Amino acid sequence: MTAQGFVIVGGGLAAAKAAEQARKQGFEGPVVIVGDETLRPYERPPLSKEVLIGKAKPDTVYVHPQEWYAEHNIELRLGVAVSAIDRESHQVRLADGSEIGYDKLLLATGASPRPLPVPGADANGVHYLRRLSDSEALKKTSSSPASPGWW
Ligand SMILES: Cc1cc2nc3c(=O)[nH]c(=O)nc-3n(C[C@H](O)[C@H](O)[C@H](O)COP(=O)(O)OP(=O)(O)OC[C@H]3O[C@@H](n4cnc5c(N)ncnc54)[C@H](O)[C@@H]3O)c2cc1C
Q: 20 φ, ψ to 5°?
């Protein structure tokens, strides 16, 4: 169990920037980012543009270098979702059964694609694009767009 501090749920751009600002504003207590993706926070716009068309490498999308988190004493708990929040006891429960106490909690869980509710929506060649792995999978198909004029 981690000591009380600032817990950020969601490992995206908002989470990374909130942690950055907490340190910039002088907060010295524990900062923990809990994200259900296994990758550290990254930017998604390139996933449908430069990364998708091969103009940028996937490793250019990260908000901060890996070492930045340790340098700023920001703990990354990746690959695990927050499954419950107990506001009375100021605890979040993680899907792996562990708990983290917080003084301040930020929910930065973003959005996820809404499955298309039509027949055939799960056919081969139909893709959803949210994560870096989605972009890489789409890039491997022959039907990837030649220009980034869509998002
Ligand atoms: C392909 C694509 C292209 C885009 N292009 C543009 C653009 O050109 N211009 C623009 O302005 N915006 C663009 N956007 C939108 C922009 O990327 C989002 O506004 C931005 O990602 C929001 O950041 P966020 O941190 O709030 O949320 P997200 O990036 O969605 O990150 C939230 C994270 O929280 C995680 N999470 C959710 N629930 C839990 C939980 N219970 N426990 C732990 N983790 C959890 C999610 O898995 C995710 O990793 C694009 C988005 C996509 C997908």
A: -60, -45
d(CA 65, CA 113): 27
Sketch out the chain's domains with CATH numbers.
6-110+126-139 (3.50.50.60)
Which residue's C-alpha comes closest to atom 9 of ligand 1?
45
- The model's pLDDT over 66-110, given as tens digits with 9 standing for 90+, comes to 999 999 999 999 999 999 999 999 999 999 999 999 999 999 999
What is the DSSP-derived secondary structure letter of residue 91?
E
Distance separating alpha carbons of residues 130 and 113, to the nearest angstrom: 7
Q: Which atom of ligand 1 is nearest to the CA of 48?
A: 1
CA angle 100, 3, 12 (to 5 degrees): 50
> Ligand 1 centroid vs 106 CA: distance in angstroms?
15
